[in-house]
Amino acid sequence: MHRPGAVEVEDGRLAWVGPASPGEPRRAGVLMPGLVNCHCHSPMTLFRGAAEGLPLQRFLREVLWPREARMTRDDVYWGMTLACAELLRFGVTTTCEMYVHEEAMLEAVEEAGTRCVLTPGVVDVPGWMRWQERLEEVVTFCDRVSASAPDRVEVGIAAHSAYALPLEALDALGAAARERDLLVHIHLAETEDECAELEAEHGTSVTALLAERGFFAGRALVAHAVWVDEADLRILREHDVAVAHCPQSNAKLGAGVAPLADMLRHGLRVGLGTDGPASNNDLDLWEEMRLAALLARAHARDAGLLSAQESLALATRAGAEALGLANVGALEQGRAADLILLRADDPAFVPQVEDDDLLSHLVWSASSRLVGDVWVAGRQVVRDGECLTVDEERARREVQERATRLAQR
Ligand SMILES: [Zn+2]
């Protein structure tokens, strides 16, 4: 930490990071890396509030999937566009997305100027989507985008889950990702019921089942991992599987509390995810950061778990590592200039007596409301709390109208 510090940006990258020299022009505030959201379905801004009070399977089957089956490309474009404004205003500069209508997602991300690991989702729901055709679509998209190598977008492949896809689909999706060295992204062991049903059917935990079938043989990211035991955690570590920990979504859907401290003890790569705005209900990663630490401490009855530094890392550097992104998550020379500047003229930052106080205030008393300015790859995308790249008033109106239509059967 440099106080005061300075950065030099060249071609969207940090050319230099260090202490400020006397006499250099100064800006008040706390400059830090943009936050990394490792698991979300951001266009679900269209369904915020649509499925309150339901457990996961009813949430998906009764509310989400029927609406998603009716969604158009433009619905997803506007859902994602509004989400980009929300994410950027919260200081979240990178997201890992699992969703459909990926062309519209890509367009929204490119226009809003966010950074994204875009993993088109595959699910098998009769009347909406069959996995074989969808896999072809996804692979075609991934190959095209990989070949064009856009600046801030990487692609991967998302298998929805082991409960919403047959095993041969999981095999095919895993293989398609491995052949291309792409990230494969899946919901894993989110609820107790899902784990019990799969275990009854296959005679082994869902984590062990996927490992046995080679699903984790390439680059893998699993969301949730709430219902994993020590043996499962060893399997995840053995295969270097990264975890997107989504404490708020897990709590809101009554799924449980994932064993974050155990994951870290096993040496897993762990980042944080908001999950979709239908189960959170916002895209504010600051809340995940604090809740992750609070729940880990409450669960273990140990105030020494998850230091402020570790908690902040989950939302930044560790999140980047979980996604396999070496160029974001820290203010270091050579990394992308994905920066957020927090207003420091706030009670949350007072007092600062010891050196570490600023760090603990960032986790325990600051929040997204203090994010004033945001840059992605050196381009300013938020100024004084206002998103410069999205016509937010129009995006709110579009999502309002489209969500109303999608809610009608
Ligand atoms: Zn999810």
Q: How would you describe what is shown here?
A:
51% of the residues are buried. The strands form three sheets. Strands 4-5-6-7-8-9-10-11 form an eight-stranded parallel β-sheet. A five-stranded antiparallel β-sheet has the order 3-12-13-14-15, covered by helices on one side. A two-stranded antiparallel ribbon has the order 1-2. The protein is α/β, with parallel strands linked by helices and 409 residues long. The protein has 15 helices and 15 strands. Helix 2 (73-89) packs parallel to helix 3 (102-112) and helix 12 (308-315) packs across helix 14 (357-364). It has helices at residues 56-70, 73-89, 102-112, 131-148, 167-179, 192-202, 206-212, 230-238, 247-252, 260-265, 285-300, 308-315, 317-323, 357-364, 392-407; strands spanning 5-10, 13-19, 30-33, 35-40, 92-99, 115-122, 153-161, 183-188, 219-224, 242-245, 270-272, 339-342, 371-376, 379-383, 386-387. The chain binds zinc ion. Residues 39, 41, 187, 223, 275-276 line the site of zinc ion.
